[in-house]
Amino acid sequence: MPIQLSVDHISGKPRASRRPSPRKIALVGHPNVGKSALFCRLTSKYVTISNYPGTTVDVFRGFTTVDGQEYEVLDTPGIQSLTAESEDERVTADVLKHEKPDLVIQVGDGKNLRRTLLLTAQLSHLKMPLLLALNMKDECDRKGITIDGTELSRLIGVPVLQTTATTGEGVGALLDNVESRGFCLLNGHPPAEWVDEILDQVKVEQPEHDAWADFRTLLVTLAVLIGSALHLENYLGAYLGWPTLYKAVFDLAGGTAGPAYLPETLAVAVGSLAPVLLPFLLGLRFDANFPTRFGIWSRRFLTGIPILIVALSVVYQLVGNLGAQVLVGVLEEVVFGAYLLPALGAVVPAGFVYDLLLGEYGAVSVGLTYGIAIVLPVVSTFFIAFSFLEDSGYLPRLAVLSDRLFKRMGLNGKAFLPMVLGIGCVTMATMTTRILNSKKERLLASILLALGIPCSAQLGVILGIISGISPLATLVVFGTVGAQVFLAGHLLSRILPGKRSDFVLEIPPIRTPLWRNIFKKTTLRVKWFLREALPLFVLGTLILFTLDRLNLLSRMVRAVEPVVTGLLSLPSQTAMVFFLGFLRRDYGAAGLFDMARNNALTPVQIVVSLTVMTLFVPCVANFFVLIKEQGTRSALLITGLISVYAILVGAVLNLILNTWSLPL
Amino acid sequence: MAGPSSDLPDNLRLTDLAVGDRAVVVQLDEKLEMRLLGFGLFPGVPVEVRQKFPACIIRCEDTEIALEKDVASRILVRRVDSAE
Q1: Is B59 on the interface with A (CB under 8 A)?
Q2: Within 10 A of A190 (CB to CB), how many other CB atoms are there?
Q3: Cβ–Cβ contacts within 10 Å for residue A553, how many?
Q4: DSSP state of A414
Q5: Taking burial as the number of CB atoms within 10 A of a residue's CB, which of A18, A147, A177, A292 is the most buried?
């Protein structure tokens, strides 16, 4: 019945339409109640949904048609209340104030009815027609919570519909009711008392939660993930010696067996999983409620840190081994090296065109090879891992673990979100700093992001290079970068005016991510990468090609030679890589990857160049976002300071490493 | 900044409770009131302490909320028998 017309969520502006403007529907609600999922259902277009409270920062718009009437649907950022504590909440308040929607659909959560109704009460002050969609009905059902929607609707004066956006259940009924709006019957009662009265009258049945089903799903997922039940059995048998227990686990999980073949790299990943599996097995014996338990362990200090280390090492294995070794090997050496480039070389005659495409700075031999053969496999594997972490609800727990650390940097645990998103893409993360509550925190987080957070593609390539050296080298690079970020934050928090805000954050339940969603998200991100980054790779190569032809390249390299070869003891070719890094950080990293593979760098040089590259100037895109969010003056100042700082740190690191000659 | 008064003998700070304790919110620091209201946290609401370190975590309805120690100490509660 819902016919989707078009979605324009990039500009955030209404689509130009020949007809008079359609009726507007605004989706409003708490973070993490499935607003974005419902939005996708209503407009049948996928938007990135994640389990971290507050990831929908921009207002997404879509269109839908019900019975010939066109509606514009607006998805607003999740809010805790209408008082606009953060910029994010202000966006929602502004949308309601300025857009004057014909209908507000409050997306609520039946498991948290008190909180939901409290927001209903607040929304009633806006005197706008309301409709309450109690979403995540499936989770309610699983927890045995039943809500009498008709009775609730009578009491609050607003139509109540129950939906499950992830499956589409109840969405049709919701659309059928978009015209049956109501006004909240708060009538001047104090909201808290009013809500209590309603909760007394609506019988909400809430028996004990049976978590066995969740646990079973998780087990099956894990078994499939690992690929082979048989292999795992051998592996655990050899490593853990728990033959009886793990056999019991697989019998319970329905004896799921995947393909018998398991690549070597995945076996290593399984190795990293082994410590996670142990509590898994123990947990099974004492308590079947695993996701909940895992949720608790991961936010406690003593158990949370080991879990974090395991999670990081799994990502390290996946990206560094599977992505950067296996897949890059196949693509670069076989697809590009053995087939594509020689085939092109045979067709294109020697001369200008050949140099342009296949020469030392050729669009294909360098631009496309770096983009597709080196960076693409690495970012793809990283995106898979990142989407999984994002959807599982694990990330807010890291905010809990890291609050005390961030406090010393003048931030609070909430800043963990932009930081970890920064690993996704620093540019996007700089935009999400607006979820932070004070101006000082936003500036501080933007600076730290620009300084020390490598973006996914860059991080992936870094992992790819460094997994070829030694764990100590990894430790030195990330230790140095981490220490600089901490130091800079600590000092800046004392210098910059303003204050830090209190840490209050909702912790969503641990959910088994849907593979379908992870696949969609990864595809979405890979497409984004191909669209945004690949042209820049080619453009960058063309710039280099032109500079080289004009004999300017060698002059530029000579100009910075004292710094690069003198202070940092790096080959002069690295200067070029740093130039590229400004265009796109991962492009620069790919240049280093290439040099490292060809043994053009010693371990010390790799460590120094990676550290400088990570700390070095943000990419062009990030620079523009910095201008947008913080102003031109601040952006220039930040970039200038960071560049000098990066080179200084690199010089000191180079000196130390050469003096002590660590076994890298 | 003056915290909420604990003139009534039964009133405790949230930070005085142990993990697993259940309580009812009595009073919130004025500055926190609007902010915590949105999380469903206001006077009369039952809560349970789930964790105290590295950040305090309480459960309120079906939501877990993380609060840093400083915030938790500005929330006054009355303990409820966990046997209830």
Answers
A1: no
A2: 10
A3: 19
A4: G
A5: A147
Q: Give pLDDT, residue A648.
A: 92
3-class state of residue B75 by DSSP? strand
Kindly list the domain boundaries of chain A, sorted by start residue. 3-205, 213-287, 288-660
pLDDT tens digits along A357-399:
888 888 888 888 888 887 788 778 878 887 888 778 888 899 8
Beta-strand relationship, A69-75 and A3-7: unpaired
Sequence-ordered list of residues with C-beta below 8 angstroms from that of A441, at least 6 positions apart, any chain: A410, A411, A412, A415, A433, A498, A500, A501
Q: Does A507 touch chain B (CB under 8 A)?
A: yes
Among residues A297, A317, A320, the alpha carbon closest in space to that of A308 is found at A297
Return phi, psi of residue A50, to 5°: -140, 165
Please check the confidence at residue A613 and state whether its pLDDT lies above 80: yes
Cβ(A364)–Cβ(A344) below 8 Å? yes
State the sign of the Cα–Cα–Cα–Cα dihedral A151, A153, A159, A162. Answer: negative
Strands B56-60 and B46-51 turn out to be antiparallel
Cβ neighbors of A90 (< 8 A, separation 6 or more) are A84
For domain B11-80, the CATH class is mainly beta
- Amino acid A484: pLDDT: 92
Residue among A114, A505, A507 minimizing CB distance to B40: A114
The pLDDT of residue A210 is 43
Return the SS3 of A170: coil
A289: left (phi over 0), alpha (psi -120 to 50) or beta: beta
Share of chain A above pLDDT 90, in %: 8
Long-range contacts of A136-140 (CB under 8 A, 24+ apart): A136/A33, A136/A34, A136/A109, A136/A110, A136/A111, A136/A164, A136/A165, A137/A110, A137/A162, A137/A163, A137/A164, A137/A169, A137/A170, A138/A164, A138/A166, A138/A167, A138/A169, A139/A111, A140/A110, A140/A111
User: What is the reported pTM?
Assistant: 0.68
Full 3-state SS string of A97-114: HHHCCCEEEEEEEHHHHH
* A169 C-beta neighbours (distance < 10 Å), count: 16
Residue A584, burial from CB neighbour count under 10 angstroms (0-12, 13-18, 19+): buried
Bigger pLDDT: A430 or A47?
A: A430
Q: Which residues does chain A have within 8 Å of residue B56's beta carbon, measured at their own beta carbons?
A: none
Q: How far is CA A210 from CA A166, A508, A542, in A?
A: 21, 18, 60
A645 or A254: which carries more pLDDT confidence? Answer: A645
pLDDT band at A87 (very low <50, low <70, confident <90, very high): low
List, for residues A631-643, the tens digit of each pLDDT value. Answer: 889 889 888 888 8
Task: Establish if B37 touches chain A: CB-CB under 8 angstroms.
Answer: yes
Between 3.30.365.10, 4.10.230.10, 3.40.50.300, 1.10.10.60, what CATH number should domain A3-205 receive? 3.40.50.300
Cis amide linkage into residue B54, ω under 30° from 0: yes
Question: What ranges do the domains of chain B cover?
Answer: 11-80
Q: What is the mean pLDDT of each run of 10 residues along chain B (84 residues)?
A: 51 89 87 76 86 89 87 90 54
Best residue in B15, B27, B39, B47 for a mutation probing chain A (most A CBs within 10 Å):
B39
Give a three-class secondary structure readout of B13-72.
Answer: EHHHCCCCCEEEEEEECHHHHHHHHCCCCCCCCEEEEEECCCCEEEEECCEEEEECHHHH
Contact list, B42 vs chain A (CB under 8 Å): 118, 192
- The verdict on B22 touching A (C-beta cutoff 8 Å) is no
Residue A600's contacts (CB-CB under 8 Å, 6 or more residues apart) are A571, A573
**Closest chain B C-alpha to A28 CA, distance in angstroms:** 13
8 Å CB contact of A83 and B38: yes
